[in-house]
Each structure stands twice: as structure tokens, then as C-alpha cells.
Amino acid sequence: MNRENRLRKLRHEMKAKGLEAVFVQSPENRYYLSGFRGSSGALLITETDALLYTDFRYLDQAAEEAPLFEVVNHQQNLMTMICTRLQDETLRHVGIELDKLPTAQYLAFNRLAPTLELSNVEPILDRIRMYKDAEEIAYLRQGIAMCDQAFAHILSYIKPGITEKEIGLELEFFMRKLGAEGIKANHVIASGERSSLPHGQATDRVIRVGDFVKMDIGARVMGYYSDFTRTVVVGQPSAKQLEIYQIVKEAQEAALAAIGPGKVCSEVDEVARSIIRAAGYGDCFGHSLGHSIGLAVHEKPTMRHNDQTVLEPGMVITVEPGIYIKGFGGVRIEDLVVITADGYDNLTTATKELQVIPV
Q1: Residue 75 pLDDT grade (very low, low, confident, very high; cuts 50, 70, 90)
Q2: Chain mean position to CA 32
Q3: pTM
């Protein structure tokens, strides 16, 4: 990955905001900027220096994974070392991850270096991470391909009598066999009336004839998450199941047709939402149309009514409208797309036609 370019972008933003140093500790931003994947570490980045603080367990790993950084053994006194360094270099205006920094460390800054001016650097990092480079997109493409294959596999596995948990375990096992280093934590496997839960995780509920089975899954490749949803029906669908499935499919395809560079997130959200609303199910679509994804499952921008971000090449977003009817069930269809100079590249290839599981 071109981490030199990422550091260059960060330093450009630091200069524009008057930041003399940035302290980063969240695993996603630490990895994004340095390449270090150990479980313990922090970065201190100034105009001229890039330091990676970690402990004895990770010194060799850090030196190998983060060649652009000077590796420092912090032992038990990380905050003392950070504050001493800042004061020795008379650096005052420091960017911190305000929403991610543990309270104890924030208090340590105030206690050990009370003259520091602390500012939130997260908006800067979020903005830099909005744009995925070719290597990041390649990892996302690998992950979504695993989801496509897992969906094709699970169609022959689902049957009446098995549980939601069994479906979830089979999907995870299959993707790990394909090479996934993990799965996203909020896998959704929800069947029957539980499919009306947008984030209903797998339970011991037994699959029955007539059920919707909604599966929202994701594989992780080199730290990057994919996101994929399809809904199937076990046995012949009812008229209402066919109706709401078709409405969601129409809304999703209309949103895809509206996506491209220069389009505004809120406007694309409204394209899908208006179709669901006109069909009488507006109150049954309570979440955003989609979101960006990368080292975290939910990144910015968000495809929602109050996000005025203009889509640009390199942004990666999900497109996932849904209808959820309490006591009946729900449908969601989700693709993962990359914005390009002249439109978008849909990384998801699985069919969106309603798949009927024979019984």
C-alpha cells in the first residue's frame, strides 16, 4: 500500500488545520497509516517524524510491518513518553481521535501536558479514508467474491429443520476456507418473522417452510470488510412475499441507476426511498440506503437523507434498501459498488432474482 501518500495527505491536512502533531491509537487508523497490525500500539506523527510506540511483544513485527515509522518500546509508560516528546519539541497543537481515545488517556494528556491544545483529528482521517486506492479496492473485491461464492453454496444447504445459527456457521466456515481472515461481527441471519429485524443475529430458531431467510454477511481480507445481503424464501413464496421482494429489488436497481460521480448521497437515498414510500411501505424502511466500508464496516460517507456528500471516484458504498414488517418478515438486497470516473463498478455479482429453496 502507498502509505507514503497517506502520510503526505495527513501532513497536508495537519498544516492546513495548524496541527503540529497527531496521536493515533485506534486499530483501523493505526493500520491504515503505518501497516502495523499488532493489538497494542500508538502513532505520533509530526511534520518531520513518524513514531510507532509499542511494547516488547511487537517490536520485531512493528519494524517489519511499518518501515516508514521509527519503532519505540513504550513499556508501561506510553502517555508519559508521548507527552515528554511533545513538550521537548515544544509542540502544542495536537490532533487526537476524540471519539476513540480512552478517557484515561485524555485525562493523562491534561495532567502530564496541560498546555497542549487538543483538537479532533477524526474528520481529517475519515476524509482521507473515503477514497480507496487500487490495493484497497482489490481487497474489497476479494472479500465480496467470497460472499458471492458463499451465497451460491448456502442455497443448497438451507432446508427446513436447520437453525439460523447453523446457516451462520456454515457461511463463516465456507468463507474461511476460501481464505477470509475473519467475518464482520454483525452477521445477520434472520428467518421467518425475525427477518423483519434489520440487524437480527442468528438464533436457535428453526427454519420452516414459507420462511424468508435474510442473510447479511461479510468477509474480511487484509483488514478490509465486505458487505453483502440477499434474502431467499423456503418453499413457494406468498403473494405478499413476492410483492415486497419486488419493491425492494426495484428500489435497489433504481438507486444503482442513479449512482455516479457528482451525485449527492441524500439524493440517491431518496431515489430508493421514494419507490418504497409510493408502494405504501415508507414506514418499513427505517435505515439509510447504504454506507461506505473499508477497515470498518461503517465508514463515511453515508447514503442517508442528511448526508450532502458528493460522490467521487474511489469512494466505495453499499446500496441496501429494505422493507421490514413486524410479525411478518423482511427483505433486504445489498450490493457493494466503487464510484468510477464515468459511473460505478458493482463488485457484487450474485443474482438478485428471488431464490426459492425447494422443499
Answers
A1: confident
A2: 14
A3: 0.94
